[in-house]
Amino acid sequence: MQYVSTRGQAPAQSFSQILLGGLAPDGGLYLPVEYPKVSHVELDAWRKLPYADLAFEVLKKFATDIPEADLKALAHKTYTADVYRNVRAGEDAAQVTPLRVLEDKDGRKLVLQALSNGPTLAFKDMAMQLLGNLFEYALAKQHAELNIFGATSGDTGSAAEYAMRGKKGIRVFMLSPHKKMSAFQTAQMFSLQDPNIFNIAVEGVFDDCQDMVKAVSNDLEFKARQKIGTVNSINWARVVAQVVYYIRGYLAATTSNEQKVSFTVPSGNFGNICAGHIARMMGVPIAKLVVATNENDVLDEFFRTGVYRVRKSAETFHTTSPSMDISKASNFERFVFDLLGRDASRVRALFHKVETQGGFDLSGKPGSDGDEFGKVAGYGFRSGKSVHADRIATIRDVQDRYGITIDTHTADGIKVAREHVEPGVPMLILETALPAKFNETIREALGRDAKRPAGFERIEDLPQRFEVMPADVAAIKSFIANHTGL
Ligand SMILES: *Cc1c(COP(=O)(O)O)cnc(C)c1O
């Protein structure tokens, strides 16, 4: 299986060649030359498989240059009941992504798929844990090392640290804004004592952290010498790992391949739902893929009108579902490539227009850039939006009706899912975090604290290990160099 860039000007590469990298050299994103297919015979055979074996079956279609025995061992090391142990009462950790029927009324069925039972209580663990094991495996083969450098305001940084902790050949340098994360998120990251994890609390805001990452990335000589890499959501292996739970959700919610299901996905960078698109393109019987946004509704606007209009950072709202506070979804280009019939030169022109004019228009109206919006529904896509008041109302309603506490992002998903569920087609809502991570809003909605999974009760009291540094690029560079010895 070879991978090509959405912008068409980078050489084709294998899975292992793109594993450790980010963007293609032409600025595009990698996708397989063509999507592997899943037959109905395979789907039937996969119904009974434990999660790790299903992950292996899916991975081997994409990672064709890794020996199958190695892939199988990596899948089994990653997807265990122990890693995904933070289940609710009544859920079975051995299922890895257990389903729970919320409602089944007049044939309209709402089902929650728990993806947040991993070490950091958010769905990013589903892919990041595999990435940690894949990276360690690939680096050992190449006798190489990698220094992951990034900035976080919460979920991504902790998922990366928990995936890379203790891994041979890998160090993580993670910037976060000093005293700006929640006490829970801070404790989660800073309590890690592993010698290969470096938490750097920057005296500034998240944008200062991100600017420092950009400045370091632009110094190509430093980046090469220090073997700097990233683990952001455009990483192809992360997307593949996410394809697995769509197939798992489909199989667990149906009894025959004649049936279809739909998914609603709380979306930010479009990474999660992009995996759903790929599962559908592979032939998994998925009816609708519903994009749920919060107040930052760039994607909802596109899927309603065909107009893609990114917002500037000053126009990006800070909301109570903060992991969706994104106005330029980094994985969206992958879907646009397919929507345009894989015409890389048009993708190049449209995303150049995003840089220069802030967006493009595929509505087909006079003066627009194309009429492909007419094809969007044919790919199953629908969308909806949820704001703070909806979130609060949905958290209360789900607590009252079904007796479970959901987090703010999942609440956005359920609000939008209810607008799109149809008789005879189960609607699976992907649960992207557990409520303990966003306790302030749970208190506002329910007047009490969210329950914490076992082992998280007193994480704020654990000793913390972190460096406080000014927002100074030279200082961070020398910190990295001093700790890598390179
Ligand atoms: C990252 C994240 C999202 C958004 O996922 P994307 O892949 O960026 O669309 C939604 N909810 C939570 C809790 C997250 O951490």
From TrEMBL:
<dbReference type="GO" id="GO:0004795">
    <property type="term" value="F:threonine synthase activity"/>
</dbReference>
<dbReference type="InterPro" id="IPR029144">
    <property type="entry name" value="Thr_synth_N"/>
</dbReference>
<dbReference type="InterPro" id="IPR001926">
    <property type="entry name" value="TrpB-like_PALP"/>
</dbReference>
<feature type="domain" description="Tryptophan synthase beta chain-like PALP">
    <location>
        <begin position="96"/>
        <end position="346"/>
    </location>
</feature>
<feature type="modified residue" description="N6-(pyridoxal phosphate)lysine">
    <location>
        <position position="124"/>
    </location>
</feature>
<protein>
    <recommendedName>
        <fullName>Threonine synthase</fullName>
        <ecNumber>4.2.3.1</ecNumber>
    </recommendedName>
</protein>
<dbReference type="GO" id="GO:0009088">
    <property type="term" value="P:threonine biosynthetic process"/>
</dbReference>
<dbReference type="InterPro" id="IPR051166">
    <property type="entry name" value="Threonine_Synthase"/>
</dbReference>
<keyword id="KW-0663">Pyridoxal phosphate</keyword>
<dbReference type="Pfam" id="PF14821">
    <property type="entry name" value="Thr_synth_N"/>
</dbReference>
<feature type="domain" description="Threonine synthase N-terminal">
    <location>
        <begin position="2"/>
        <end position="79"/>
    </location>
</feature>
<dbReference type="InterPro" id="IPR004450">
    <property type="entry name" value="Thr_synthase-like"/>
</dbReference>
<dbReference type="InterPro" id="IPR036052">
    <property type="entry name" value="TrpB-like_PALP_sf"/>
</dbReference>
<dbReference type="InterPro" id="IPR037158">
    <property type="entry name" value="Thr_synth_N_sf"/>
</dbReference>
<keyword id="KW-0456">Lyase</keyword>
<dbReference type="Pfam" id="PF00291">
    <property type="entry name" value="PALP"/>
</dbReference>
<dbReference type="Pfam" id="PF24857">
    <property type="entry name" value="THR4_C"/>
</dbReference>
<comment type="similarity">
    <text>Belongs to the threonine synthase family.</text>
</comment>
